[in-house]
User: Fold these one by one.
Assistant:
Number 1:
Amino acid sequence: MANPLNKPLGRLRLGVNIDHVATVRNARGGAYPDPLRAAKMAEVAGADGITAHLREDRRHITDPDIDALMANLSIPLNFEMAATPEMQAIALRHRPHAVCLVPEKREERTTEGGLEVAREENSLAHFIAPLREAGCRVSIFIAADQPQIEAAARIGAEVIELHTGAYCDYHAEGKFAERDAELERLREMSAYAHSLGLEVHAGHGLTYDTVKPVAAFPEVMELNIGHFIIGEAIFSGLDSAIRRMRSLMDEARNETFGEGVA
C-alpha cells in the first residue's frame, strides 16, 4: 500500500453533512428547511455524498429523514451513528452505502473527539461484523493516534475518518505552533493508516481557511464537512458555499500535485 510518488490516490471527494439543516428545522418544529432538499441541492453543487448523523436523542436528523434520504438520494449516504444496538438495527434495515461509527454523549453540543477503538476492540469487532456482511462500508471516526488506527485496522474497518477538530480549533484560537504540530500529526497518520490498507477520510470543523492543507494530503480520499457549509449558506446560499469549498479542495490538490489531479 505504499505511495512512493506521493501522489493522490484518487479524486478527493466531498461529503456534505446536512445535520444542521435539520437543527434549524427543529428549532420551530415544522417541516422547513427540509434536509432532503438540501441534500439534493448539495449533489447539484458538486457533493459526492451526503452525511447524516442520527443521534440517540434525535436532536437534528430524525428517523423519517433517514427514510427520505435512503429513498431519494442518487449519491451515497454516509450514515453516522453511535455503536448501539438500536442504531445497528436501523443501519441493517436501511443498508446505507457507508456507516461511520462516532462517539456520542448526550450532554455534548457536537462530537468532541474520536472513538475509543483500542479499549473497545473486541466489542467493536463484533458490532461491525453484521454491518459489513450487509454490504455497508464501515468507517471509524478517530483521532490521529497510532494505536487507534492500528485497532481500527484489526477490527475490520475499511475506512477511518480522522478528527480534524483540534487542528481547526488551534487555527481559530491563533495557536499556530500547536496548529502546525497537529497538522503534521494528521499528515503522518494519514500516510500510516494508508500503509495498513485503510481508506482515509477526514473531517470536523473544516472551513475555507483550514481545508486546503488537509485536502493536500495525498492519502486522504474524502472530506466530510457540514456545520461551516450550512452556516456559510446563510450568507451566500448553499450552492455557492458548496461550490467554493469544492473549488478550494481542488485547488489544494492541483497546487500540490499539478493540474488535472482533482
Number 2:
Amino acid sequence: MDLEENKDEMNVEAAAGNVVDSEEKAVVEETADVQTSTEEVVEEELQPEPERPSKRRSRGTKKQKIETTDEKPQSEWIERVVQISRVTKVVKGGKKLSFRAIVIVGNKKGQVGVGCAKASEVIIAIQKAIADGRKNLITVPIFKTTIPHPITGRSGAGSVMLRPASQGTGIIAGGAVRLVLELAGIENILAKSLGSKAPLNAANATLEALKALTPFNEVAKKRGLTMAELLN
C-alpha cells in the first residue's frame, strides 16, 4: 500500500511539474513576442519620414521669379533736389499753401537741365520739376574733363564765373553751381558765385554760362584752321 501511495504522489508531482513547465514556456513565448513587437515599433519610429516639399519654399521661389521678371533697366538720368520751399498765396478766403521744388537733371555725359515747379504736395512738385528739367536740357561742350574757355553767366541778380582747370583740380564750387557742374559731367573746373546767392538764380546763371560755351571745332572752322593749328 505504501509503495502504491508513493507512486501516486510521484505521478502527481510529475504532472504538476509538467504543468509548471508548460506555463513557464507560455510566459517566455509571450515575453519574446512582446519584445519583438516593441523592437518593430522602435524601428518604425526610428525610420526617417520622407521629406515633403514645404509650401513656404515654393512661395519664396515664386516671389523670386516675380522679382527677377519685374526688374527694370535703370535710367541714365540722375535727379538732384536743390531746394524745396513753402509758398503762401493770399486769396479771398485766406491763404493757400503750396510747395516749390528746384531739381537738376543730368546724365554726366554732357547734358544737364534745371527744372522748377509748384504743387500742393511735395512729391508732385518734385515730379513736375523733373519733367520741366528734362524739357530744358542743354548740351555742354566738354574738353578734357573741363570747359574750353572762361565764361560768366547771368540770371536775374545773380552771376556765376567759370574758369577751366587742370587735371586733378576737381570741382571748386558749392551749392547749386556744384550740382549743375557735376551732373553735366565736368570733373575739373573753378567757379565763383557773384551777386545773388539764391539757388534758382545760381543754377540758372550756371546753365546760361554753359549754354554760351563755344567748342574748339566751331572756332577752328570760323578761322579756317585745323584743331592742331588752333591748339598749337
